[in-house]
# Entry
Amino acid sequence: MNSQNIFENALKQNHISLTKPRQAVFDALQHHKSLSMAELVSACSDVDRASVYRTTDTFEKLGIIMRIPTGWKYRLELGEAFHEHHHHATCSSCGASIALPEDPALERRLQDLAHRRNFTLTSHQIELTGLCETCQ
Ligand SMILES: [Zn+2]
Ligand SMILES: [Zn+2]
# Structure
């Protein structure tokens, strides 16, 4: 199943119609991988700002997109159904968000840690901050 099919199914399952603004927001995130809210608004030039915000809220509830915290701000990217699970490192100097490679050993380790407290881990986000290659 490609990304467009996953997207359409997620809407259908929740009885939400596929409108032009919704497709535009999805396309922008698919092409850019990760966007700030302001970048998303300007990437969807045919959609008014209020619709972009509304669509973002809807998509977040459906898990189509997720917020990646970067300090006190956040970036938006497509949810885990659309790509492999991975973590991000944010550069504290220029704000770049670097996708780290997937690491099954780390994932197992987290499950393990949670399990030791009888906690069932369903999802997690790890916030990593530092300096990117350019800013070092
Ligand atoms: Zn940097
Ligand atoms: Zn992880």
